[in-house]
Specification:
420 residues; mainly alpha; Growth Hormone, Chain: A; 79% helix; 0% strand; disordered N terminus; disordered C terminus
């Protein structure tokens, strides 16, 4: 008989959940999962609009993709900003501030009159949305033991995966009926809904007695200590490059599917959703078996899966094997690998830093979106009306993730209990 998921309080942590009520756990996972969806819904809902935005602003594919790269950069910087501040001032106030910034800048994106303005507001939108991702990961570490953090994050990923499953499809139909600007108004409304849920459905997990007493300068200087940890660096490289391959997929597929293979914008969401189904299935499998086989083994398995599927994608792109199907199948398996890599590598990175959970989560998230900004921009700059540039970058990301996972195998767990 399978044991139910129960929170296991960390040693000496007065905020860890003491309840064994499964309903309470589910409610927490639902709230945290929803607050983690700012990135996928903000990216994926407007993906079908990229060609249309280019036509309206008379911009090339590479120039339009800068709106996507700007989001990646803003999200990375936002996580580096909000994570340490949540260690010092608490999770809830920083979440509220980030969500309010997201609401305002989403509306400003809708009112942009040129591409440069849209790029700027997208950066600020992402900066605010970064609070949701980084702080919810820290909250998981606050409330659950390291052994169960990977499992909880896997179930959160099931929630967040619903956004990219539905968002491109919804965005495609909105584009056809109302135009791309309405998509950003809807994102602003979504942010407001999240703010209401945050205000009434989430309590503080990092109380005053556990918050850092260091100065802001010392709090941000803590990043240097994180990068000295070999285990954390291995987790950053493994998870960061695998995730960056997904961003190359996100940047490239609107043009590969719509422009090269002639897929209709409203039908693009179905192909995109197919890969999200792979992510959901893998997240469920990971959550079910990670406590049995261990997070480290799942990371290695996922990295091997990413490398193999990435190389298969490069082969089919270069040889034109299978046309659209030859591209879609390897991408399906690459997306599935993300669930095994991300949640487990995050949990392994954070487990040794209970008092710096926000800082470590910020570094991890920033590495994902920072490398993702580079790969996303590269796909746009090297786009040559073939799927080869996208495939080559995804394959490289998978191989580097696999190599980095071997560094993780040889690393030793970090144990840190002292305050910053």
């Amino acid at each position: 008989m399978r044991r139910p998921l129960k929170p296991q309080p960390s040693s000496g942590d007065p905020t860890a959940i003491q309840l064994t009520d499964d309903t309470r756990i589910i409610s927490i996972v639902l709230v945290l999962g929803l607050l983690s969806t700012f990135a996928p819904i903000s990216i994926d809902m407007y993906l079908p609009s990229l060609p249309a935005i280019g036509r309206e602003f008379f911009a090339s594919a590479g120039e339009v993709q800068l709106t996507l790269s700007a989001f990646f950069i803003g999200f990375a910087l936002g996580q580096l900003f909000w994570g340490p501040l949540s260690d010092k001032f608490g999770r809830r106030p920083m979440l509220i501030a980030g969500v309010i910034l997201y609401i305002v800048t989403s509306a400003l994106c809708a009112m942009s009159v040129n591409l440069e303005m849209l790029i700027g507001f997208r950066t600020l939108q992402a900066f605010g949305g970064g609070a949701g991702t980084v702080i919810t990961r820290a909250i998981v570490r606050d409330r659950f033991s390291p052994d169960h953090s990977a499992r909880v994050m896997s179930y959160m990923m099931l929630i967040t995966a619903l956004a990219p499953l539905c968002a491109p499809l919804i965005g495609g139909y909105i584009l056809q009926c109302f135009g791309w600007r309405i998509i950003f108004w809807i994102l602003s409304v979504f942010g407001f809904i999240c703010l209401i849920i945050l205000l009434f459905g989430l309590t503080e997990s990092n109380p005053r007695e556990r918050q850092s007493k260091a100065t802001l300068l010392r709090v941000f200087a803590g990043y240097g200590d994180i990068f000295k940890d070999f285990r954390v660096v291995a987790c950053l490289l493994t998870g960061g490059f695998a995730f960056a391959g997904m961003f190359a997929y996100i940047s490239g597929t609107p043009f590969v599917y719509i422009d090269i293979f002639g897929v209709a914008p409203e039908a693009y969401g179905y192909l995109f959703g197919l890969n999200i189904v792979s992510l959901i299935i893998s997240a469920y499998i990971n959550g079910k078996f990670v406590t049995r086989f261990g997070a480290k083994r799942h990371v290695v398995f996922g990295s091997a899966m990413a490398a193999c599927s990435g190389l298969a994608l490069l082969y089919t792109a270069c040889t034109e094997t299978g046309d659209l199907i030859g591209i879609a199948i390897p991408l399906f398996f690459y997306m599935g690998s993300i669930s095994f890599i991300t949640s487990n590598s995050i949990a392994l990175a954070i487990e040794g830093y209970p008092l710096k959970a926000g800082t470590v989560a910020a570094v991890f998230g920033a590495s994902q979106f920072g490398i993702g900004a580079i790969t996303g921009t590269a796909v746009g700059q090297f786009y040559d009306n073939t799927p080869i540039p996208m495939a080559a970058i995804i394959a490289a990301c998978g191989v580097i993730s696999l190599i980095s996972s071997q560094l993780l195998v040889w690393s030793k767990p970090t144990v840190q209990t002292s305050k910053i």
